[in-house]
Each structure stands twice: as C-alpha cells, then as structure tokens.
C-alpha cells in the first residue's frame, strides 16, 4: 500500500469515465489538483447529460491550485441546455504542448457518446482512459456488471480503458473496512478486463489496507437540489 503520485500521468490527457454515481467527479477534481503541481492544468466538465454531480462545482476548490475549470456554458445556472465550451479545443491544443487535461465524462454509455465530438483529436493525444467503479452501486454490485458497463462505455466513446480506479464507498459513513472488502472485486474486474488498477480511493476514513496504491479524495461536488 502506497500513496498514488500524479507524476505517473502528468503531461497527459486523462479521460475519466464510469457508471452514473460512481464518483467520477471527485476523482477528476482530485487528479486535477494533484496534476497542477506539474504544470498548467485543465479540468473539463464534459458531463452534458447529468446536472446533479458536476465538475463545475469544483471550481472554487481548484482555484487556489491554478486549475482552469472548463464548464458547459450554462453550468451552475437554472438553464439546462447542453453546450460544449470552445475552451475545450483550447485545452486540447495546450495538451499537445504538455499541459495536463482531465476530462470528466458523463456517466454510462449515454455520457460517453458525447465524447464522439472529440474522438479523433483524443486519439492523436494517446489519452489515459480511466474507468471508475463503485462496488456498492446497485447496478454494479457484481464485478461482471461493472465489466459490462465498461465495455458499453468503450463502445460508445470509441476509446479503450487503460486504467481502473476503485472508488467503492457507501457515502459519508464509509469505513476503511468497507473499502478493503472490495479488494477481491477489484482484482477480479482487473483480471477479466486485462486493465491494471491505478489506485483505490477514500475520503472520510482511515487509509484502507489494500493491494496497490491509494489516494485520498476531497468531496467537492454537491447536489443542485
């Protein structure tokens, strides 16, 4: 067990995908914060589907770290019209010169489909594509279910997952034991997918004793209502 270092993915475009409600946005915000130590960093809120948990809410959290948060044009307002900011292309152009770019993608296949607009450009940037999973979510209670969702996301966005993140939790009451209990699930998913586990995350508990690296997250997102 050791602490994950963002240096392993610095200077790369990092695409964060996963099942709805798995905690992608907290993972994305924490990665952007950590990557800011290695140079110019963007966090792109590319969730144009679900307004409930959004990277836009992390803007205040990330401001002290100099992270530029690129959000849909109507984020944090009462207007719910999906719109891709032109700054997305600016961020990806800067990525060609070594900037760190984290893209927080909408949940499930529907959210991943929206990446089609960026597909060709992303392929030229050789992105790190992360699949975040939560073993305690109702529709991914078995690792086989999580694997199926991962395959659906890959098919929808045309990108191949290159790393897994175990963000298993049951909310604020999560204990390290709850996370440790998902280590077998994580290994089975990793083995079946042929994709390595980047880290296991935790927020409000002691560091879990699990194989591989761990990363403490900050809870940066909120519900609109």
Short description:
The protein has 225 residues and is an alpha/beta fold. The chain contains 8 helices and 9 strands.
Tell me what you see in this structure.
With 225 residues, the chain is of the alpha/beta class. The protein has one domain: 3-Layer(aba) Sandwich (Rossmann fold). Helix content is 30%, strand content 19%. The protein contains eight helices and nine strands. The protein has helices at 24-35, 59-62, 87-95, 108-113, 119-124, 143-157, 176-180, 183-193, and strands spanning 2-3, 13-18, 41-46, 68-70, 100-105, 128-133, 163-166, 197-202, 213-216. It has a nine-stranded parallel β-sheet, with helices on both faces. Strand 3 (41-46), helix 2 and strand 4 (68-70) form a beta-alpha-beta unit. Helix 6 packs across helix 8. The protein is globular, with a radius of gyration of 16 Å.
List the defining traits of the structure above.
225 residues, alpha/beta, Rossmann fold, 9-stranded parallel sheet, 8 helices
């Amino acid at each position: 067990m050791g602490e994950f270092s963002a240096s392993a993915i610095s200077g790369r475009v990092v695409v964060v995908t996963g099942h709805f409600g798995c905690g992608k946005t907290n993972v994305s915000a924490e990665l952007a914060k950590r990557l800011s130590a290695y140079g110019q960093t963007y966090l792109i809120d590319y969730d144009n589907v679900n307004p409930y948990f959004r990277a836009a809410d992390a803007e205040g959290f990330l401001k002290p770290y100099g992270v530029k948060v690129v959000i849909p044009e109507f984020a944090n307002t009462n207007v719910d019209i999906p719109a891709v900011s032109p700054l997305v292309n600016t961020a990806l152009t800067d990525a060609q010169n070594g900037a760190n770019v984290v893209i927080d993608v909408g949940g499930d296949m529907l959210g991943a489909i929206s990446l089609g607009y960026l597909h060709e450009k992303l392929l030229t940037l050789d992105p790190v594509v992360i699949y975040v999973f939560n073993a305690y979510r109702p529709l991914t209670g078995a690792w086989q279910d999580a694997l199926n969702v991962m395959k659906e996301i890959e098919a929808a966005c045309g990108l191949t997952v290159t790393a897994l993140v175990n963000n298993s939790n049951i909310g604020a009451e999560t204990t390290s034991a709850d996370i440790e209990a998902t280590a077998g699930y994580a290994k089975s998913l990793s083995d079946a997918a042929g994709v390595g586990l980047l880290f296991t995350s935790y927020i409000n508990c002691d560091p879990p004793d699990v194989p591989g690296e761990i990363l403490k997250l900050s809870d940066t997102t909120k519900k609109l209502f």
